[in-house]
Amino acid sequence: MTAAVTQDARTRVLRAAVELFAKQGYDGTSVAQVISQAGVAKGGFYHHFTSKEALLYEVYGDLITRQLAAMDAIVARGSAPGETLRALIADLVESTAASAQQALVFWREQHKLGDERTEQYRRARRRYHDTVTNLIRDGQSAGSFAAVASPEMVTFTIFGVINELPLWYRPQGRKRPAQIATELADFVLAALAVPA
Amino acid sequence: MTAAVTQDARTRVLRAAVELFAKQGYDGTSVAQVISQAGVAKGGFYHHFTSKEALLYEVYGDLITRQLAAMDAIVARGSAPGETLRALIADLVESTAASAQQALVFWREQHKLGDERTEQYRRARRRYHDTVTNLIRDGQSAGSFAAVASPEMVTFTIFGVINELPLWYRPQGRKRPAQIATELADFVLAALAVPA
DNA sequence: CCCTATGGACCGACCGGTCGGTCCGCAAGT
DNA sequence: ACTTGCGGACCGACCGGTCGGTCCATAGGG
What we know:
Two copies of one chain form a homodimer. The first copy, chain A, has nine helices and no strands. By secondary structure, chain A is mainly alpha-helical. Chain A has two domains: 1-49, Orthogonal Bundle (Arc Repressor Mutant, subunit A); 60-192, Tetracycline Repressor, domain 2, CATH 1.10.357. In chain A, helix 1 packs across helix 2 and helix 5 (81-98) runs antiparallel to helix 9. The longest helix of chain A is centred in the middle third of the chain and has 27 residues, at 116-142. Chain A is elongated and about 65 Å long. The A-B interface holds A 23-28, 108-109, 111-112, 146, 148-150, 153-154, 156-157, 159-164, 168, 180, 183-184, 186-188, 190-192, 195-196 and B 23-28, 108-109, 111-112, 146, 148-150, 153-154, 156-157, 159-165, 168, 180, 183-184, 186-188, 190-192, 195-196. Chain A binds a DNA duplex through helix 3.
């Protein structure tokens, strides 16, 4: 409501955490560093977050939720396999590039996700993974895609590039996210193209 | 020579470190955990290693060196681009699968590589990367490969899957490393195939 | 006045690393 | 063949400092 002249403490903490976790890793970042960069005292931090771990969950939960919602919307269109795959790649690449730091933190720290609360993030990613695999498998069965490799291998390849994108993508770089997405989709669809 | 009934302490420490770093991350693993699993006391550890960081360097240095040497040998054969690319993929996949934990540790902790000593690991990976990129670029110029995507994008894709292989590869799984390598090479070469 | 938001002193546990010392295989001295 | 001395492998108590987390005082809007 009140348009705060500076962001509220909670938001500042979240932003500082994303930046520091991306740069130094979760275990390599102390709560003291986070609150110092956010301009908040210890008490203020623990007023908003129950623990350092809770902070980590919040950092990567948001991106995954958005990507999953976008996936559902794209699949719901019911387009041809090739078109659907292209749209999925485009959204994944662009949302990952737009939130590269969150994506990097999730990717690097996902092995810390062990408890009940975070298992759902794993399941979310798993669902995304399975959806793409099924899309490719169905496309191959229907003859829209060539059976040049197993659906699993193709899926691992697609997610492999995208998951590592935060490591090499630079917002100031030559290539815009849309162009990266196009190139990747071209590459994948060329491999899956059925011989004329 | 003397087939030690138990490995020497140094080797046990190294093995324990790889395992724990892969499971919990470098910062998430204490020296106390490493020495406990290795069955060595604190003093014994610091007799063999100057610091915890030095231990990390040793854990991932060896694999990179071997992969780079294999790459040089393959390139030196001077085979056709397609054949060379297939051989590089095969070696990368198989060596990564065989040393999945080291590969995982390197990939997850590479952002910690900042000092002089470790910069060489970065350069080694960079050289591997550039070699593949040039191979694809030359192949495209010569007409052996289709210009379906930029050489950089193709390279990122290949290394993307392979770097994430430790996350999903299971030695007891259905697919042998050689089969994974074949599938991946088939996929990549299908995309790069020039239309007949 | 109470309730939410915040500050900062403070806590015990644990961190990476040090240090003085023990143990033992082995080669030289006799 | 027995003794002596030495050097490297290894031990575990201990260090200062930092960790994540707690607690209470306080400020200020309703």
